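---------- Forwarded message ----------

FYI, see the Hyaluronan synthase record below. Original note from H. follows.
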Amino acid sequence: MKRRFYFLLESLGTVMLFLFPAASISFIIFYELTHFFDPSFERFILSGKLPLFAFLIVLALSLLIHFKFKQSHKKRLHEIGIKAKRRKYKLGYWAKKRVEHEKLPLFNKSGAMLFVTISAVILLAVVWFGYRMRSGQRHSLSGIAPFFTMSGGMAIATLVLSTLYTPYESKETRERRVHILMPIYNEPVENIEKAFQSILAQTVKPHTFVAVNDGSQLVDYATLAEKYTTIFKEQDIQFKFLTQKNSGKRAAQLLAYDSLTIADFHNEIILTIDSDTIFEEHAIEQGIIPFEDEQVFSVAGVIVTRNITDNILTIITDLLVIGHMVLIERSMNSMFGSVAVNSGPIAFYRAEVLTLAKKLGYQNEQFGQARVEFSDDSFLTMSALLLGRAVAQSTAVSYTELPNKVSHHVRQHLRWSRGSFIRGFWRLSFFPVNSFVFFRQALGWATFASMIVIKLQLFYWLIFVLDDSPILLLAPLAFSAVYSLSYISIPRNDLAARDKWIVFFAFPFTVLWAIFILSPVRLWGYLTHKNTGWGTRDKIEL
C-alpha cells in the first residue's frame, strides 16, 4: 500500500514537472493569439503578451547558445571521446527506495510531516484553482495568472518529488583513497584548526590532505602547519601544507591536485572543501557511498549553518539555501542524476573529473575577454555531468558559516548570480536539447525573464489600477510556507525543535527578501557578469 502511494506521488510529480510548463505556455500562446488586439492600453500592459514574449525570446536564445557557444570545447570533448548523454529516469525507482529506506540518525523524514506537506499542497492547489475559476477573465490580472500557475505547478512538482528522495545506502562500501583539497585565504587560524580537528575525527580517514595558502597577507600559518604535520602523520594521513602567491581558489585546488599521487583516477576520490568547513564525523564515510554506482561521478554533501542564530539575515539565508535550495531543489535534481552545482564546503568527485576540468581550461576559464575566477564548484560539477551522474548525499554533512552582514551577503549572492549566468552558457551548449540539464537551465532562465516583466506589471497595477484586493500577490507567501515545511522534516542535532519552527515562521521575510533584494541582485549579477573577479576579502569577516 505504501509503495503504491509513493509510486502515485512520483508519477504525479514527474508528469507535473514537465506538463505544467508545456500546458501553461501552450494555453498562454493560444489565449493571447485569440485575443491579440487588446481593447485598451491598460489591458495590453497587464496582458500575458509581454511576459510571454520575454519567455520565448530567452528560449530562442538558449537554442542559439546551444549551437554557437564554445564550439572549440565541444570539438575537444569529441576528440577525447566524451559526449554528454541524456540521463534515463526509471519511474518507480525512488518510490521503491523510499519504502525500503532504513531510518538513519542523519536523515529520517517524518511520515507525519510528509502527510502535512501533501495535505498543504492539495489545499494550496484547491484554493488557487478555485480562485482562478471564480475570477475567470474578469480580473485585471487574469492575463498574467497562468504564469503563476506554471511556476507554482513546477514548484509543487519539485516539492512532491523531493519528498521521495533518499540518500544512498550500502552495507558494504569498498575502501577508497580519499584526497582532500583545501584552499586557504586569510582564514582565521582558529577556524582552520576546527576544520583540521573535524577531519581527524572522521570515521573514515582521508588518505591525503593538502592545504594550500593562496598568498594570505593577514594571517601567518607557519605554526599551524608545523603542528598539524606531526598530528596528521600520527593518524597515518599524508598531510601537505603548500604556499603559492595569490592566484585564486582554482589555482590553489590544482596545485594541491597536481601534488597528489593517484593510481586509479576512476576509483580514487577528490574531496574539495572550504577553509572554514567543519565535518560531521560520518561525512566522508557517507559521501563516498554513492560512488558504488559506477555512473556517479560527483556527490554533493549538505551544508548546515553554524551561525544560524546570529540574526534575522542568517535565519532567512538558512531557510533559502538549506530549506529550499538544498533539501528541495537539489534533492529533486539528484533523482535525475543532474545536480547542477555542489556546495563548496563539501563536494566529492572521482579524480578523473578534475583531469577533465583541466582539459576544459578550469584554471584559465574565459568568458568573452574576461577571465573567470569564481564559480569553481559549478565548473567541476558540470565536468562531472559530462562524464556521468551528479547526485546529492544528504547524510554527508558539514557545518559552515553564512554571512551575517548585509554587505557580505549581497556580495556573495552577486558572485553566485554572475557564476550561475556564465555556467548557464556552458550547460546550454554542452548538453543535448532533450536532456534534463538543458531543460532546467533554459526553463529557469525563461521563467526568470517572464517574472521580471510580471513584477513590473504588478508595480504598474498597484500604482495605476488596483481595482480589486491583490489576492494574487499572496501566492508567493503560500508557496513559500509549503516549501518551508521541508525544513521541519529533517533532523538537526545542533538545533532544538523550537528553533526549527522559528526558522520556518521566517518564511514571509524570506519571500520579501527574495523578491525585493535577491531578485534585483540576481538581475544585476546577470547584467554585470563580466565583472568576473572573485572579490576576495581584504579583511577577516563572516
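H. also flagged this: Residues 1-166+437-528 form one domain.
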